[in-house]
Design a protein that fits this description.
The protein has two helices and no strands. The chain has about 80 residues and is mainly α. The longest helix is centred in the last third of the chain and has 27 residues, at about 40-65. It is elongated.
Length: about 80
């Protein structure tokens, strides 16, 4: 059951908040992450790359939602 369905504007603001929270979490992770010893440096670099990509996706989703592109399948 979608509680926000009757209010389309509310769903957009809710999605904006969720994407902003996701981007802020990624930023927090990147700033707080300490590089481990050389034993797992390859895995660590892959993890950091994935977090950076996730942050980029959150940023694009935030901007597109703020500009009103909510129905990507219709374009």
């Amino acid at each position: 059951m979608n509680l926000a369905a009757p209010w389309p504007v509310m769903t957009r603001f809710l999605f904006l908040g969720e994407t902003l929270a996701g981007a802020l979490f990624c930023l927090w992770f990147l700033r707080r992450a300490a590089k481990p010893d050389d034993a797992s440096s390859r895995l660590w670099s892959i993890t950091l790359l994935a977090v950076r990509m996730a942050m980029a996706v959150f940023g694009v989703a935030f901007v597109m939602n703020a500009l009103g592109y909510v129905g990507w399948r219709d374009s």
